[in-house]
Amino acid sequence: MAYIMVDIESDGPIPGDYSMISLGAVLVEEGLCQTFYGQLKPISDDYIPEALAVSGHTREETLTFDDPAKVMHDFADWLKRVCRDKPHFISDNNGFDWMFVCWYFHHFTGENPFGFSSQNLGSLYKGLVKDMFQNFKHLRRTQHTHHPVDDAKGNAEALLTLKKELGLKIKL
Fold it and tell me: Which of 5, 101, 122, 123 has the fewest CB within 10 Å, making it most exposed?
């Protein structure tokens, strides 16, 4: 199975009304050398300055980013190149990241290569340690910078640690 750790940055809380600004992904495997990065031009005039500020980009910068359809087609092509079989979506906050990626794939390409489900890294960790108050973020090695590739890599490092040190049965 191909697990793809995904992270996105946006300028608001929901897709459609607001925009995904950047998308990062990494194939979860030793070395974490297969990555994808895209910057997407806003699809809406609406944005929340505080939400956009998290990404480190200005509105003016985002207006020069790539057409979202191109980025989503490029992402789909990347998934086909790096995955031997169906890709599985996993992220730190899949409720947020998934809704943007799923919406953008359906809106701009007509289908979502991930299908209809996603996995949540935080929930997986809580189950492994049997404690709903624990957090996996101490297992990241790559600094959490809000650059989506950095953040996806840090989360992928944590997932690999769950396999190596906590005995997570996962086929990578």
Answer: 123
Query: What is d(CA 102, CA 113) in angstroms, rounded to the nearest whole number?
Result: 9
Whole-structure pTM value: 0.97
Residue 146 is among the residues annotated as catalytic for this protein: yes
Give pLDDT tens digits for 45-79.
Answer: 999 999 999 999 999 999 999 999 999 999 999 99
In a domain, 172, yes or no: no
Does residue 91 lie within any of the structural domains? yes
Q: Which of 73, 138, 146, 147 is catalytic?
A: 146
Q: What percent of the chain has pLDDT over 90?
A: 98
Q: Which CATH number fits the domain that encloses residue 77? A: 3.30.420.10
**Residue 60: Cβ within 10 Å count:** 7
Instruction: Count the domains in the chain.
Output: 1
Query: Confidence band (pLDDT; 50, 70, 90) for 1?
Result: confident
